[in-house]
Amino acid sequence: MGEVRVREAVADADRAACFAIREDVFVAELGVPEDLEYDAYDNDASLVVHVLAVDSDGTPLGTGRLLYGPGAATKTGGEPGLGSLDRLAVTRHVRGLGVGAALVRGIEEAARLRGLTTVGLHAQTHALGFYERLGYVAYGPEFEEAGLPHQSMRRGLGSGGAEAVGVGGGGAA
Question: How far apart are CA 114 and CA 95, in angstroms?
């Protein structure tokens, strides 16, 4: 694998690659029903930014998306400055090689460019350590989403990097 590049998936071919990766990872591997995997956010450019990680030769490696703005209030609770990272998926053959971390940082940069100050997410519980290593802080009880156990997490986007943010009424973590 060469250098990993992360870009916003604006072109039709990039968006198709994002959806193909999600199909492989969420639907085929994890058994998420297709009608739950794809939702109204996917095609509304005012609510979502899709990102795509590619190898130096352009081979798609992973994807994720950022939901933001008033129309995404069901994911963000309508909280100003909060974006929701979700649908993070990396192809099986490059897992553990830094693609997921590159995608998260790319989504955080997309959030900063849109004036957001915090990114939240619903992590599958087996991935908590991955997100914690990237500075995310878990809060609240575990819950089920798409038939899989999840945990809410957040990370503040400080001026030069991330910082823990207070959640659940407590102070800064």
Answer: 29
Nearest Cα residue to 66 out of 41, 83, 81, 90:
83
Cβ(155)–Cβ(118) under 8 Å? yes
Name the H helices within the chain: 12-22, 34-37, 73-76, 99-113, 128-133
pLDDT digits (tens, 9 = 90+) for 48-78: 999 999 999 999 999 999 999 887 888 888 8
Instruction: Report the distance separating Cα 90 and Cα 98, nearest Å.
Output: 10
Instruction: Give the global pTM.
Output: 0.88
Residue 72 token pair? 């995404």
8 A C-beta contact, residue 45 and residue 9: no
**Adjacent-strand bridge partners of 60:** 54
Instruction: Read off the tokens for 70.
Output: 């008033």
**What CA–CA distance (Å, rounded) separates 150 from 50?**
21
